[in-house]
Design a protein that fits this description.
Largest sheet: 7 strands, mixed
Helix content: 25-40%
């Protein structure tokens, strides 16, 4: 598919590698939308080679009967662009119940934007975020301070020539998060839930240890990319003992004396906790005199 046109009219064409992935399940079970984060691609496949952003979490949820939609939005685009794509995919999904969106990292910002600005609250039952930088990430600030001019130049060039959009990195800074939160109030009465990921630096994936240092100095406990305090939003359901990559079930190596292992069951527990809360809220509303 054409991704864009160069000023001289030369069109670059590449294969479409991503699309929403649907796992049918029991119509009586709660449907789940998995929304990926920055530089994620949902589920991708090139011939026999496949890559799953959530590394099988969707299979764990589906094995329990849940219909699952693994969304696919522009991998590095701004929140507003990603959110619009997410909304279309959710509304095009034919399920019997309003789904719960379980969003990892930037996917939580996409969904919050969609709820407040695009009317998604009428289409889903709840939002549960996992390691989402609701208040930004100090590491994103550091990257833009050091390399902002270069990355923006490269990004502008790529967007003009190919249509590939890298502007999403600007939405992850602390300053951008403050502006986002002010402009994106929670939808009244809509249920928001969150969990954080936290791992000690020495047990974090080596590629995240430098960023872990920066976030520790600024905010304290973190997962290598997102601080614990930044990940808390709405009803906080606790923290997972893993780094940021592990919180989407990607485990490079885990040498912790008490390893967490497969986080699929943690996602299932999160879904169960959200469902329990929704049922409790519904029962409370029914018992309240009108």
């Amino acid at each position: 598919m054409p991704l864009g046109n160069a000023p001289n009219g030369i069109s670059l064409v590449v294969l479409k590698l991503t699309s929403p992935d649907v796992l049918p399940g029991d119509p009586a079970k709660m449907p789940i939308v998995l929304a990926h984060g920055f530089f994620g691609t949902g589920n991708t496949r090139i011939g026999p080679i496949g890559h799953r952003y959530f590394y099988g979490v969707e299979k764990t949820l589906n094995a329990a009967g849940h219909p699952v939609l693994v969304a696919s939005v522009p991998f590095a685009g701004p929140v507003s662009v990603r959110a619009a794509k997410l909304v279309r995919q959710i509304r095009d999904w034919d399920v019997d119940k309003k789904p719960i969106v379980v969003a990892h990292s930037m996917g939580g910002l996409d969904t919050r934007h969609a709820l407040t600005h695009l009317g998604l609250a009428g289409d889903i039952a709840a939002l549960a975020t996992v390691a989402t930088p609701h208040r930004g990430s100090p590491f994103a600030d550091w990257v833009l301070r050091k390399f902002g001019r270069t990355t923006r130049g490269i990004g502008n060039f790529l967007r003009r020539i190919t249509g590939i959009d890298l502007r999403g990195s600007d939405d992850l800074t602390v300053e951008a998060a403050e502006a986002f939160n002010e402009a994106t109030p929670d939808v009244a009465g809509f249920p928001y839930f969150s969990v954080a990921a936290v791992r000690e630096r020495e047990y974090t994936f080596p590629g995240l240890r430098f960023s872990h240092n920066i976030i520790t100095a600024a905010e304290g406990d973190n997962d290598g990319l997102v601080g614990r305090a930044s990940a808390m939003w709405g009803t906080f359901l606790g923290e997972w003992a893993c780094d940021h990559t592990h919180s989407r079930n990607q485990v490079f190596r885990e040498k912790h004396p008490e390893p967490t292992g497969d986080v699929g069951p943690l996602y299932q527990q999160l879904v169960d906790d959200v469902e329990t809360a929704l049922l409790s809220n519904a029962a409370a509303e029914e018992s309240t005199p009108h």
